[in-house]
Predict the 3D structure of the following.
Amino acid sequence: MSEGRKGIPEALLEQGIRAASRAARVVLDDPRGQEVLAAAVGAAQKGKRKVEEVQGLVMRAAGLPTKGDYEDVAKSMARLKRKLRDLAKQVDGERKR
């Protein structure tokens, strides 16, 4: 097959992308479509928060750290790293005197 010609899978993918793009444009150009999309995004975000909440409860019940626990540790480590960097600068300043 020459490089200028596309195979059936590539052609189908390209047509699918064009069709999806046209459909998205139609939905986003319509105020009702925008409202529906906004509501769907809001529902998805609410669902995601609920899943994360339940996941945290299950993880804690199993005695495992949650995502929040890891985030807290990461923040603490970042603070310690900054503090160590500041202390190292102070020590280097004292050595130079």
In short: The longest helix spans residues 31-61. Helices lie at 8-29, 31-61, 67-96. The CA atoms of residues 1 and 7 lie 8 Å apart. The chain has a mean pLDDT of 92.
